[in-house]
Specification:
104 residues, single chain, globular, mainly alpha
Length: 104
């Protein structure tokens, strides 16, 4: 019985490690897609990134924060049009690619 239990534990451990690796690979792929989009378009709004990448604003802000800390992206102060004030914040929140380095 103990051998069976150890075998099941090892199987579960292997599955968790595999799913963790898959999640990490998926996260890296999304971050690379975000970098490529910013590199190709220069300056984009958070709303455009939400639409293009199909990721919510808060998750994108976390990803963008990582790129900002690495010095690849900067947040650009957007201006409201001064009219109706009905623009969602994501529409006037802009990010810009600033890194001249090639990414691998």
């Amino acid at each position: 019985m103990k051998i069976l239990f150890l075998g099941v534990n090892r199987y579960i451990h292997d599955k968790i490690e595999t799913s963790d690796r898959s999640f990490i690979q998926w996260s890296i792929m999304l971050l690379q897609q975000l970098q490529n989009h910013l590199r190709n378009h220069g300056r984009v709004s958070l709303a455009e990134l939400e639409h293009q990448m199909k990721i919510d604003a808060e998750t994108l802000r976390l990803m963008l924060g990582k790129l900002i800390r690495k010095g690849r992206v900067c947040k650009v102060e957007g201006k409201a049009c001064g009219g109706c004030h009905s623009c969602p914040p994501e529409a006037i929140e802009f990010y810009e690619w600033i890194s001249p380095q090639s990414m691998s």
